[in-house]
Write a structure and sequence with these properties.
Layout: H1 3-69, H2 75-95, H3 100-133, H4 138-146, H5 149-227, H6 241-314, H7 320-350, E1 358-362, H8 363-374, E2 382-389, E3 396-400, H9 401-417, E4 421-431, E5 434-440, H10 448-451, H11 464-469, H12 475-485, E6 489-495, E7 499-507, H13 516-526, E8 531-536, H14 540-551, E9 555-560, H15 566-573, E10 577-580, H16 589-597, E11 607-611, H17 616-621, E12 626-629, H18 634-649, E13 653-656, H19 660-672, E14 677-680, H20 683-692, E15 697-700, H21 709-717, E16 727-731, H22 737-746, E17 749-752, H23 757-775
Helix pairs in contact: 1-2, 1-3, 1-5, 3-4, 3-5, 5-6, 6-7, 8-9, 9-12, 20-21
């Protein structure tokens, strides 16, 4: 016999012995389980029998008490005992099924009980009631009791019940003895069987150790040699035929491993060389993308910025054809910038370098910004726009603001581009901790076969309409990746010819932290001032309107009707600006304006004339700062007040950038806003200008000659006289996460150069003006 047969016989005997022991143990266990069930039944019979005895005792006591006293209260235990007897007797009958001896006793018991109950009711209780009625005497009752009829029946009943109890008790004792005997037998069998099994197992183990362990040890040593790459040492052993075959196969495997490892080393060396080339290519690609980001975006932003200014300032002075040409230039430049941004974003995503920058902000404000950026796409089309929100208050969220903005720009611009009529609707809903942002249109829609591919890279829905609106096919792909990076998901439903609905689901807090208090804190910190505006007008409706206009921008409005001493009240209030009507009840506006400008205490307060009369030239000759013709819109009023205050305050802005077009564009914006400004074309010039005169705000590019933006910021923060200067970084460079963190620690705000960057720049400058007012 070979080794396998020997082991099979040895282990077979051990298993058979263990099976026999288990079968015997199971049989005994089953018998004991049945015995336990029978014991439980016998115990219940004894308990019910004792309960019947107690019920009978209560009935007997109640009947005797009533016979002696005649009080009906003694009958309560009698009748309650009757109910208890019937209940326990019924239960005892169920337990005694298939037990002939007990069933016979129970039949006799019930007959005796009925006889006793009838005698007690008819003789004792009924005659005692006659005594109470005066129809019978107590001596007669005593004679009935002394007849011993009831006692004899009760004694017979007790004897029957005690016989039942004794019989069941004897059965319990007999079963207990049997269980003990079975327990001892099981112990003997398991002890002997276990001992015999142990002996056989030890024998098999010794045999196995002698015939198998040595070859196994040799194989283990051989595997260690393979691990240490010692392929020359082979396993050599003469023994069992099967083990020899195994060892031979192992030696063959060892030789094959040696050969394959040699081949793998050759391939690894080639792969390392290729990886070095790939890493170098990736590095060059990243550098190329960073440079392209700057070199492509910078001229495009200048084109868009200057085109916007020409369109805005030219008014009707240009022929309609030229106006249309400028609009085409702006539209195509924006389109080209969008394509470049999409390609750069896609490259960063593919390279795994796209990062998430969480911050707390108001989602509703971002939605409004997105609409302002994309609404031009709907111009000239029969389109309506509707915006719905689950609340009229701010919508706090903590996430990556720029990515959410890009997501909404892509979805809303698609909705406008792929719709020629109907309504484009953007809605926000909140369920638990998730925001549901839906963009729905009534445009061309998407077919069922195309809807599964709209998020694929470079995939565009085929058709003339798609070719007309253009694009790279990356917008929705980038949108989906951005949504997933922010811990959300995007869903779409569409019907061809009826429209589409995209739903973006985002968590309210990407870091699971409370953000409401942080948002409130940020908002309060940026709007802590309240400038005073005195409004002199005798029309209460105008006063109320101006107050509503200005309260939204955190101005405090004080109303004067002209009937009071206006000069005295203005001297008391010391306002930051005055809105003055011309037609007033006591003194007209011209007289008040003259008094204000000839008074040393009030001559420097900005005065804005607001009237239905067209007297602008006269107002300027009398030194009014601004003149508005009623009716005045909110935007016109607020813009005029802010511009007038800035003129008086005299904030100084320094712009540092190597792009002359950007400097020219910034200069035009700042000049239009009446802000003094200086320009510097490189890093060294920025430092020189700041040392010559410290500006109120520095607008700084990162990529500049001589000294880049990082070096300039480092020098500024190390110089005591200028280290607290607010810095606004405006750059076209794609910043890394590390660069952004460094800039956030040292600057006020970072703005990516784009067609709408001027809005953000001017908003930041206005905040700086407010801070200067507050500290003045």
């Amino acid at each position: 016999m070979n080794l396998g047969h020997k082991l099979f016989i040895g282990f077979g005997i051990v298993i058979a012995l263990m099976v026999l022991i288990l079968v015997y143990t199971y049989i005994n266990y089953d018998n004991q389980t049945k015995a336990v069930d029978d014991n439980l039944s016998s115990t219940e019979i004894i308990q019910e029998s004792n309960s019947i005895l107690i019920s009978l005792l209560n009935m007997e006591t109640g009947a005797r008490g009533y016979a002696i006293s005649g009080t009906s209260e003694f009958l309560e235990p009698f009748y309650e005992g009757r109910e208890e007897y019937l209940e326990h007797f019924s239960r005892l009958q169920e337990l005694a099924k298939n037990k002939e001896y007990i069933e016979g006793n129970l039949k006799t018991l019930n007959k005796r009980y009925e006889k006793w109950y009838e005698w007690e009711t008819a003789q004792i209780i009924a005659n005692r009631e006659k005594v109470n009625a005066g129809l019978f005497s107590m001596e007669d009752i005593v004679a009935i009791v002394n007849s011993q009829v009831g006692k004899k029946e009760m004694d017979a009943i007790r004897n029957i019940i005690n016989n039942v109890i004794d019989a069941e008790q004897n059965t319990l004792n007999s079963r207990y003895d049997n269980l003990k005997k079975a327990e001892r037998k099981t112990g003997y069998v398991m002890t002997f069987g276990g001992f015999l099994t142990a002996l056989l197992s030890i024998g098999i183990s010794l045999f196995t150790a002698l015939t198998v362990s040595r070859p196994v040890k040799l194989l283990i040593q051989a595997t260690e040699n393979i691990k240490d790459q010692k392929y020359e040492e082979q396993v050599r052993l003469v023994g069992d035929k099967e083990l020899n075959l195994l060892i031979n196969r192992f030696n063959e495997m060892q030789a094959m491993i040696k050969y394959r490892e040699e081949q793998l080393n050759i391939k690894n060396e080639a792969l390392k060389a290729q990886m070095a080339e790939v890493n170098e290519a990736t590095k060059l690609k990243s550098q190329f993308l960073a440079n392209m980001s700057h070199e492509l975006r910078t001229p495009l932003n200048s084109i868009i910025g200057f085109t916007n200014r020409v369109i805005k300032k030219s008014g009707e002075s240009l022929p309609p054809t030229q106006q249309e040409n400028l609009l085409i230039v702006r539209e195509e430049a924006n389109h080209l910038l969008e394509l470049i941004n999409n390609l750069l974003d896609y490259s960063k995503i593919e390279a795994g370098k796209m990062e998430v920058h969480p911050e707390s902000f108001n989602l509703l404000k971002v939605i409004d910004e997105v609409y302002q950026m994309t609404k031009t796409l709907a111009e000239g089309q029969n389109l309506n726009y509707r915006q719905d929100s689950y609340t009229k208050e701010d919508i706090p969220i903590k996430s990556d603001r720029m990515k959410i903005k890009q997501i909404l720009i892509n979805l809303l611009s698609n909705a406008f581009k792929y719709s020629e009529k109907g309504t484009v609707a953007l809605s926000v809903e909140k369920k638990e901790s998730l925001y549901y942002i839906r963009v729905k249109d009534e445009g061309v829609g998407i077919s069922e076969e195309d809807i599964g591919h709209i998020f694929d890279e470079f995939r565009q829905v085929d058709g003339s309409y798609t070719r007309k609106v253009g694009g790279t096919g990356l917008g929705l792909s980038i949108t989906k990746k951005f949504v997933e990076m922010l811990g959300g998901k995007i869903e779409v439903c569409s019907t061809l010819g009826e429209g589409s609905c995209f739903t973006v689901i985002l968590p309210d807090d990407i870091e699971n932290n409370e953000i409401q208090s942080e948002m409130q804190k940020d908002e309060n910190s940026s709007l802590t001032y309240k400038k005073k505006i005195v409004c002199v007008d005798d029309d209460p409706n105008i006063q109320r309107l101006y107050k509503q206009y200005l309260s939204e921008y955190e101005f405090e409005t004080i109303a004067l009707t002209g009937r009071e001493d206006v000069m005295e009240r203005i001297n008391e209030i010391c306002p930051d600006a005055i809105l003055l009507d011309i037609m007033l009840p006591y003194k007209d506006g011209w007289e008040i304006l003259s008094e204000l400008k000839n008074n040393n205490h009030t001559k420097n307060i900005p005065v804005i004339m607001a009237s239905v009369l067209s007297e602008k030239n006269l107002a300027y000759r009398m030194k009014a700062d601004e003149y508005l013709i009623k009716p005045v819109t909110q935007e016109e009023l607020v813009e005029t007040i802010m511009r007038t205050i800035r003129k008086k305050q005299g904030i100084d802005v320094l712009v540092g950038d190597d792009d002359e077009n950007f400097l020219n564009l910034m200069g035009q914006f700042l000049k239009e806003e009446s802000m003094p400004y200086r320009l510097a074309k490189d890093g060294e010039a920025v430092i020189q200008e700041m040392l010559f005169k410290k500006p109120d705000v520095l607008i700084l590019d990162i990529m500049m000659p001589k000294k880049d933006g990082f070096t300039v910021i480092e020098e500024i923060r190390n110089r005591e006289s200028i280290k607290d200067t607010p810095i606004i970084v405006v750059t076209a460079k794609d910043l890394t996460n590390k660069e952004k963190e460094e800039l956030h620690e040292r600057t006020s705000i970072i703005i990516q150069k784009s067609a709408v960057m001027m809005d953000t720049v001017m908003e930041t400058l206005v905040k700086r003006i407010k801070e200067k007012f507050e500290n003045a």
